[in-house]
Amino acid sequence: MVLRMREKGMKATGCNAAIRAINCYLRWSGSPHKIRKLKEPQQIMQTFSAEQVKTLISFKPATDFERRLHLLILILLDTGARISEVLGLQIEDIDLDNMLFTLHGKGRKDRKVPFSYQLRKAVFKYIESRRGLLFLTANATPWTRIGALRAVKLHCERLGFKPPARTLHAFRHTAATHFIETGGSPLHLMRLLGHATLTMTNRYVNLSVGNLQAASQQHSLLA
Fold first, then answer.
1. What are the backbone dihedrals phi and psi of residue 42, each rounded to the nearest 5 degrees, phi first?
2. Which residues neighbour 68 within 8 Å (Cβ) at sequence distance 6 or greater?
3. Residue 111: is it exposed, middle or buried by C-beta count within 10 angstroms (0-12/13-18/19+)?
């Protein structure tokens, strides 16, 4: 089966998605068999550059749509949360006094995530007289992932740059990378991202070449 999928041109990630589903069925049926997953290439995820982040943060929204979009971007950059977690935020999930979000993560696992004082000011202005979901469209319907992705991509293009691949997830990688590069603990990052193990967190840490060069110079025996 795996050989046939590969012959059809499926990538290792696509094959592994099918393999995981089949292995779940085998465990459920009590079968002693298990299909071994293929080794996936480890690709470095793209992130927003420092200049792009600065441009996104300094944008001054003028309309209700722009204010909603700007707040979404600020929350993604500030917390590193998944897009599904942010779009699912309710007003009652926001604790402005203690600057905490209650995020509803994968597997129905809730977690408390702190946010900055700068984000608190933006959230406070936005949620005045609002109820229910934090992000609703002009038609009072939940903002979908596809709608948010389209809006973010167009916004980046209007600001003069092309967004990285997997744009919405790139916010998560950008936040995680910045957290580590500025001295944050991997254990704290694991809690913030809602991961069960450090192995999962390490996939989100993408140190820039400049940081690696600086670290190499600092710790080099010859230096």
1. -90, 105
2. 126, 135, 143
3. middle
Report residue 51 as tokens: 């200049």
Domains and CATH numbers, the chain: 1-41 (no CATH), 50-214 (1.10.443.10)
Going residue by residue through the chain (223 aa), what tens digit of pLDDT does each one get? 899 999 999 988 889 999 999 999 999 999 999 999 998 876 667 889 999 999 999 999 999 999 999 999 999 999 999 999 999 999 999 999 999 999 998 777 889 999 999 999 999 989 876 778 899 988 989 999 999 999 999 999 999 999 998 899 999 999 988 888 888 888 888 888 888 788 777 776 655 555 666 666 666 656 5
Closest CA to 122 of 51, 54, 61: 61
- Tokens 């994968």 locate to 106
* Cα separation, 95 vs 85, whole angstroms: 16
Q: Give the active site residues.
A: 82, 106, 169, 172, 195, 204
